[in-house]
Amino acid sequence: MYLKSLEISGFKSFAKKAALNFTSPISSIVGPNGSGKSNVAEAFRFVLGEQSIKSMRGKRGEDLIFNGGGNDGSRVNRASVKVVFDNSKRMLNVDFEEVSLERVVHRDNSNEYFVNGSPVRLKDIVELLAHAHIGASGHHIISQGEADRILNANIRERREMIEDALGLKIYQYKKTESQRKLEKTEENMKSVESLRREIAPHLKFLKKQVEKVEKVQQLREELRGLYKEYFKREEVYLKSERTNTDHEKSPLSKELAELEKEINEARRILEQSKNRDAKSDELIAIESALHKIRLEKDAIMRDLGKIEGEIAASQRSLFKEKEKQNREESKTIYLKDVEEVVKKASLLESITEIKNLLLGFISLHKRKEDSINTEETERELASLRAKKIGLETSLKEIDEHEREKTLDYNNLRQKIEKEKDSNRDAEKNVFKIIARQNELRGVLNGIKSREEKLIIEEEAFKRELQEAYVLVGRECMDYKDVAISDEPRSAQHDRFRSIEKIKIRIEDSGTGSGMDIMKEHNEVEERDAFLTRELTDLEVSRKSMYDLIADLDLRIDVEFKNGILKINAQFQEFFSLMFGGGNASLNVIREKRRKKKLDTDISSVLEGQDEEEIFEEEEGEEGIEINVNLPRKKVKGLMMLSGGERALTSIALLFAVSQVNPPPFIILDETDAALDEANSRKYGDMIANLSKYSQLILITHNRETMSRAGVLYGVTMGSDGASKLLSIQFEEAVKVAK
Prior knowledge:
The protein is of the alpha/beta class. Among the domains are: about 1-140 and about 665-738, P-loop containing nucleotide triphosphate hydrolases (Rossmann fold), CATH 3.40.50; about 225-480, no CATH class. It is built from 19 helices and 14 strands. It has helices at about 40-45, 120-130, 145, 150, 155-165, 170-270, 280-325, 335-345, 350-365, 370-420, 425-470, 490-510, 515-580, 600-605, 610-615, 645-660, 675-690, 705, 730-735; strands at about 5-10, 20, 25-30, 80-85, 100-105, 110-115, 120, 140-145, 585-595, 615-630, 665-670, 695-700, 710-715, 725-730. Strands 2-1-4-5-6-7 form a six-stranded antiparallel β-sheet. It has a six-stranded mixed β-sheet with strand order 8-11-12-3-13-14, sandwiched between helices. It has a two-stranded antiparallel sheet with strand order 9-10. Strand 6 (about 110-115) and strand 7 (about 120) form a beta hairpin. Helix 6 (about 170-270) packs antiparallel against helix 13 and helix 16 (about 645-660) runs parallel beside helix 17. The longest helix is centred in the first third of the chain and has 104 residues, at about 170-270. The radius of gyration is 58 Å and the shape is rod-shaped.
C-alpha cells in the first residue's frame, strides 16, 4: 500500500476537516448526487499540483474554498488538502519512511506547498511526483467525462496521454527542462556574441594603437641607444674642450695681466718724465683709445657669440618644425576651415558633389604648409640675424677705427724709432708691451669665442639630457660605462640629426607613454578572451543539450513503441472480455497535412487549377490511432460506436494502459456510470484484477463496483451545505450493496 490517507479541510464543500484512510486495495466513495463525493477526486488533483482551476470546476482560486451555505454555514478563508504516502519502498525520492504533501490556497489566490511540513515550490512537488509516475492529471485520475477523452482526443493528444501512462513524463519533463536550458543557452550565446561584436571595433582600434605604441617603443629603444652613445661622446668632448681652453687661457691671461701692470708703469713714467713732449702725449692718447676700442670690441664679440648661439638654437627648432610639417599625417587644419567645409556640404544635394568638395579640401591642405609655428620662429630668427648684422656692422666700424688708431700708433712708433735719444726708451717699451698685448688679445679672443660656443653646447647638452629623461626615462642617464672609439666630430653631428628625426617621429605618434592604451587594450583583450571562452563553454553546453534531447527523444520513442506493443496485448484482452470477442489495437501513425506549393500564387486558385497541382501533402507529428472491430457486427472505427460501446472501449483501453505500467494508485470517478448490470460485473472483475497492481479509489453509484471495495466511505451533505464523511466496514458494505 502506498496511499495512506487524505485530509481535506475547507476545500470546496468540505467545510471541516475530513480524513480518509486507505487501508484496503480498493476503497469506494459513494453518495447521492450533489453530496460532494467527486470533490474527493478534485482534492487529489489539487494536492498533486493541478494548476487548471477549470479542470476542478472553478474560475478562480477562491472558488476552491468553502464559501458557506444554509443558515449557519459560514465561509472559511483557506482550503487545504494533505495526502500521506507510505514511502518505505522509496517510491518518492526522499529519505523518509512516510511523506506528506500539502497544498493550501487562500482567498487572495496565493498558494503554499509543503513536503513533510516544510515549505517548497510547485516545481519541487512536480519533480518529486514525476519520479513516482504520479501527476496532477493523467491516467491515474479518471472522471466520467475524461474516460471518453482518450477516444475523442486527436492523435497527438492521445499520444501524450499514452506517454504519461507509460511513465515517460519524467523524460518529457527532462526534455522540456533541457529545451528550456537550450533556449537559455542560445540566448546567452547571442548575448555574448552581441557583446563581442560591440567591443570588436574598439578592440581593432586599440590593436592599431598598440601597434603604434610598440613602434614608438622600438623607436624609444633605438633612441635610448643613440642617446647613450651621444651623451657619452658629448660629455667627453665638452670636458676635453673645457680643459683645453682653461689650460690655454690661464697662462695667457696671467701674462696679459702682467703686461697691463707694465704698461701702466710705463705710462706713469712717461707722464712724469721731464723730457715728455707732444709725441709722448700722443702715444698715451693713442694707447688709451686703443684700449677702449678693444674693450668695446670684446663686448661686441661676446654679444655676437650669444646671438650666434641663439640663431643656432632657432635653426634647430625650425628644422624640427619643418620636418614635422613634411609628414602629411601631422598637418594642422584650422577649425574655421573645417566649419566652412561643413557649411558648404550642407548646401549640396549630391553625394558626388560632397565627395569632390572633401577631396578638394584634403588636396588643398596637403599642399598648404602649416606655418603657425614656423612663421613665429622665422620672425625670431630674422630678428636675431638683424641684430647679428648690426653687431657685425659695429664690429667693422670698430675694426676700422682700430686700424686707424693702429696706423697712427705705427706711424708714431716709426718716428720715435728714428730718434736715438735715450729719452725714447719708455716709448719703445710701451710699443713692445702693446704689441705683445695685441698678440695675446688675439689668441684670447679666439679662446673666448671657443668658450662662448662651449657654453652654448653645454647648455644644449643639459637641455638634451632633460628631453631624453622625459622621452625615454632615466635609463638613458646610464651612459657612463658606454665604450666609445675615436671618430670625427661630424659623426656626432650626424648622430644628433638622427636623434632629432626619431624624436619628431615619437612626437608625431601622439601616443604619449602608451601605458593607458596598453592597459585598456589588455583589459579589452582579456574581456574578449573571456567572452570567447564563455562562448566556447556555451557551445559545448549547447551540444550536450542537443545530445541529451536526442537521447531522450530516442528513449521516449523506443519505450513508447515497446509500451504500445504491451498495451495492445492488454487492450485486446480487456476488449474481448468486455465485448465477448472482436479486435482492438493502437497504431502509431503520422498525420498528413496539406500545404500550398511554394511556386503557387493566388491566380492559380482563382483560375480553378486542380487542387493536386496547387497543394501537396507533408508528414506532420506522430500520434496514436485506435482501431476497433466489434464481434458479430460490421462496426469498424470509433465514430460508429454507440455510447455504451464507447464507454466499454475507453474503460478497456484505460485499464490496459494502467496494467502495462501500473501507477501507485488509480482514482476512478464514476467511470462505470453508463454500464448495465452484465457489463458492471465484467467491470468489477477487471477492477479486482487491476487492484493487484495499483491501489484503487472508486467514486461510484454502482452496487457491483461497491461490492469489490474493502472500505466504503459515504458522503452526505446537510442543511449547512457542507459535506460529511461516513465510513462503512467491508461486512456492512456487502449488506448495503445487496
